[in-house]
């Protein structure tokens, strides 16, 4: 019936409830026993070598508990082979399993996090499908494993044990159930994501990204890792920066010797507090609230010795207040003063990348590495022809699909800037 009343506006429409998910509580085949003997590993190698289709792979670390990023549990699942939970502490060499899977696609979520530890166990994939990276290329709002499983399969995956101490032995049964469920439906998720990538014309983009992750070299050690201490920006004085540097180095040595996460040995907040206060005695040090903990007080003499060494350094040995001289460009905030033309190039190039991000529903950082964009804008090829800009992107590690999408547009932006 006609009416003069206006139709409902967007803000008046009822809010749609998110689709219901079915909790995924138990692995289909139950929780398998942990593989921790050579004989059990040999049986897994045979079973997975005879399996069919891709293999789902996951790894658990003890970040926040142990020093470094060592793997403490490896999970795999493959059709016709079932699920395996392997203890890499008892079985540090898993190269036989890797050899049995040559040519098989490995499905991982956030592969860049797990592959370095798996390589330490002798596991190197021939091909990779990264479900987290696929979700990013598809423009999914949430890319954590639980969110992706819910979106693709309508299943609820609990993540309450994601941050536990996986170096614990024996591992509790509930943790093992959680670990088995992490690979339970990963291959099915991969199938859905692959179909979506093909529908959006991004299958080749994904293939190149997965290969880049698989073949990525180990990151080079940072020149001055102590500069990543949280709260360092509050300290400008070189003497106090030296205290931070010395305490960081002492903490790192102690953490490595004890195989404990550095943050548990001495929090960043304590390092910064000591650098600000410059205590001259152990008594003054432990009077700081950040040094009130039992473990911190027990090693108070060790920390005070580090502070004393920094205080005694000659001026020429103090760290720079500006940070190390790197090979990259300066922070973009100073470009307008130091090189206005570079600032204009960066603004124009960022506008191009942002527009393409919206058009293709891909995060800006996945269209092109932000550091590479800054480098090309700060030191562009001369002359900045399309061919030269493409070559600069390739030299910086851009994938072919990124160069094809961005090369001519960035060159045009440089010409207009």
TrEMBL record:
Transmembrane segments: none annotated. The keyword Hydrolase applies. It comes from the Bacteria. Residues 237-317 form the HRDC domain. Coiled coil: none annotated. Keywords: Exonuclease, Hydrolase, Nuclease. InterPro entries: 3'-5'_exonuclease_dom, Exo_C, HRDC-like_sf, HRDC_dom, HRDC_dom_sf, RNase_D-like, RNaseH-like_sf, RNaseH_sf. The keyword Nuclease applies. GO terms for molecular function: exonuclease activity. Residues 314-333 are annotated as: Disordered. PROSITE patterns: HRDC. This is 3'-5' exonuclease. It comes from Cellulomonas oligotrophica. The lineage of its organism: Bacteria, Bacillati, Actinomycetota, Actinomycetes, Micrococcales.
């Amino acid at each position: 019936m006609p009416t003069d009343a206006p139709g409902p506006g967007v803000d008046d429409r009822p809010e749609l409830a998110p689709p219901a998910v079915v909790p995924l509580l138990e692995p289909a085949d139950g929780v398998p026993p942990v593989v921790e003997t050579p004989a059990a590993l040999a049986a897994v190698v045979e079973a997975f070598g005879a399996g069919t289709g891709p293999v789902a792979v996951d790894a658990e670390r003890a970040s926040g508990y142990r020093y470094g990023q060592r793997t403490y549990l490896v999970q795999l699942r493959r059709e016709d082979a079932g699920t395996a939970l392997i203890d890499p502490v008892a079985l540090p060499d898993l190269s036989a399993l890797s050899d049995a899977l040559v040519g098989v696609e490995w499905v991982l979520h956030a592969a860049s996090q797990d592959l370095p530890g798996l390589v330490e166990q002798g596991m190197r994939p021939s091909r990779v499908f990264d479900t987290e990276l696929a979700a990013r290329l598809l423009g999914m709002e949430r890319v954590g494993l639980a969110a992706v499983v819910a979106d693709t399969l309508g299943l609820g995956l609990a993540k309450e044990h994601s941050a536990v101490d996986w170096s614990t032995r024996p591992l509790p049964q509930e943790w093992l159930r959680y670990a088995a469920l992490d690979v339970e439906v990963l291959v099915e998720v991969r199938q859905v994501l692959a179909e979506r990538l093909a529908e959006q014309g991004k299958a080749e983009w994904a293939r190149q990204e997965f290969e880049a992750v698989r073949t990525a070299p180990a990151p080079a050690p940072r020149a001055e890792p102590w500069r990543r201490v949280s709260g360092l920006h509050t300290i400008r004085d070189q003497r106090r920066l030296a205290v931070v540097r010395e305490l960081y180095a002492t903490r790192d040595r102690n953490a490595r010797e004890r195989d404990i996460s550095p943050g548990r040995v001495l929090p960043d907040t304590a390092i910064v507090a000591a650098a600000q206060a410059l205590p001259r005695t152990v008594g003054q040090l432990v009077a700081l609230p950040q040094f009130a903990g039992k473990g911190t007080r027990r090693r108070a003499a060790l920390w005070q010795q580090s502070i004393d060494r920094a205080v005694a350094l000659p001026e020429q040995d103090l760290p720079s207040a500006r940070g190390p001289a790197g090979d990259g460009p300066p922070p973009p905030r100073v470009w307008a003063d130091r090189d206005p033309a570079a600032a204009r190039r960066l603004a124009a190039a960022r506008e191009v990348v942002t527009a393409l991000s919206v058009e293709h529903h891909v995060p800006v950082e996945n269209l092109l590495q932000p550091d590479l964009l800054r480098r090309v804008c700060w030191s562009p090829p001369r002359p900045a022809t399309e061919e030269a800009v493409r070559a600069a992107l390739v030299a910086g590690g851009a994938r072919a699909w990124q160069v094809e999408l961005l090369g001519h547009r960035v060159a045009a932006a440089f010409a207009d800037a």
